[in-house]
Design goal:
mainly alpha, 3 strands, Alpha-lytic protease prodomain-like, Alpha-Beta Plaits, 2 domains
């Protein structure tokens, strides 16, 4: 973490997200009903799903902060991948209903030009959601939290959808009423893509997919800096929530005494944790190497 207050932001960010989304649900819902905009009403529904998503994220963060125990030797971090998948499912389900409604309106031709006040609702939604995306993505990166990052992308999807709604409303209020229904359809397709990406990333995390190549390269570079290590037999890592768990087998001279091997192990553990952020457990195994 770059700053000491990054951890404090982690405890506050979901509350801000919930309050902002509740405001947007009411604001867009009222303006959508008053203006007769199907796209803005659909966008309001999207924000209501975000309230549920933020609540799920908050619960998952609380559970993942619990320390390791007998039944969960690596802690409870994977709950964040489950939370991320739930957010993705919420987005996917809500967007499918929006898409069905938009297609029905297009097929039967039941669309009218909304009032211009709907533009205000879409514009405010774009600004609020883009701000929350930038705030939450910063907190997620600094704390290495997949749950908060999923929530951030939820807000980014809202910003995209509200921008599409805004563009559609501009055309709809100036003589092309079909644009409102087309905007609702475009919103649903964008959100479906984001929901599928969140679900895919969550499944990878739950299946112990390898971390980013940058992390593995960082572990390698840290290992090569420790004196007494002749080579690496194997190296692997996995992400459990916010923490990266590392397992590495290093080659050392067979003539080393036990205490010398233990010292190399401790130095390596410290070096890896210094070089990389958010490292949890580091398991180091020694393989004696016969030098000719």
């Amino acid at each position: 973490m770059r700053y000491d207050y990054c951890n404090q932001c982690k405890t506050e960010v979901t509350w801000y997200s919930i309050f902002v989304n509740i405001f947007l649900v009411i604001f867009k819902g009222v303006l959508g009903a008053l203006s007769g905009s199907a796209a803005l009403v659909a966008d309001s529904f999207h924000s209501s799903a975000d309230v549920i998503a933020s609540s799920v994220t908050m619960v998952s963060l609380k559970i993942s902060s619990k320390p390791a125990d007998e039944d969960h030797a690596y802690g409870h971090g994977k709950i964040q991948f489950i939370s991320s998948a739930i957010v993705g499912l919420i987005l996917l389900t809500g967007s499918i209903f929006i898409m069905i409604g938009a297609i029905k309106n297009l097929l039967v031709g039941s669309y009218e030009a909304p009032e211009k006040i709907a533009l205000l609702g879409a514009a405010v939604s774009v600004l609020c959601n883009e701000f929350m995306f930038r705030y939450q993505s910063c907190v997620a990166r600094e704390n290495n939290s997949p749950a908060i990052m999923a929530n951030a992308w939820d807000n980014r999807s809202d910003a995209y959808s509200s921008m599409a709604v805004f563009v559609g409303l501009v055309f709809a209020t100036f003589g092309f009423p079909i644009a409102d229904a087309l905007a609702a359809l475009g919103v649903s397709l964008m959100v479906i893509r984001i929901g599928l990406e969140l679900i895919t990333d969550s499944v990878d995390g739950l299946m112990d997919a390898s971390p980013e190549m940058e992390d593995l390269q960082g572990i390698y570079r840290a290992t090569r800096k420790v004196a007494g290590i002749l080579g690496i037999s194997y190296m692997r890592a996995r992400t459990t929530g916010e923490e990266l768990h590392v397992e590495i087998n290093i080659e050392v001279d067979e003539v080393l005494k036990v205490y010398e091997g233990d010292l190399i192990v401790e130095v390596l553990k410290q070096k890896i944790k210094q070089e990389l952020e958010n490292v949890g457990t580091v398991q180091v195994f020694l393989t004696p190497l016969v030098l000719k």
